[in-house]
Amino acid sequence: MKFKDQLLKVKFMQTFFGAAQKMHSNFIVFDDLVVVGAGNFTASGMMSNFENFYIVRDAKTVEQFKTQFEYLWSLATYRSQMPKTM
């Protein structure tokens, strides 16, 4: 199966245009909960490092994370639309 045929959609965002803009948002939104924390969603971040993750089930907070995700998604671009060089 080719990457483009997978169900997961991936977008990219250039966030470092100098010292002022950096993004480090680590959260996953599910239907009725959010997993959020300082750790990265990697094997070491989930299993080896001393990271913090929280499971949030408060409906209002989950909706706010969904809104934030949609905003970030709207700013990002698909790989095929990215410039060849930065």
Folded structure, characterized:
The chain is α+β, with helices and mostly antiparallel strands and 86 residues long. It is built from two helices and three strands; from the N terminus they run E-E-H-E-H. The chain has a three-stranded antiparallel sheet, with helices on one face. Strand 1 and strand 2 form a beta hairpin. The longest helix has 17 residues.
Helix content: 25-40%
Q: Care to count the β-strands?
A: 3
Terminal CA distance: 29 Å
Strand order, sheet with most strands: 1-2-3
The radius of gyration over CA amounts to 15 Å
Q: In what range is the share of β-strand residues?
A: 5-15%
Unreliable sequence segments: none
Oligomeric nature of the chains = single chain
Q: What global shape is seen? A: globular
Note the total helix count: 2
Average residue-wise pLDDT: 82
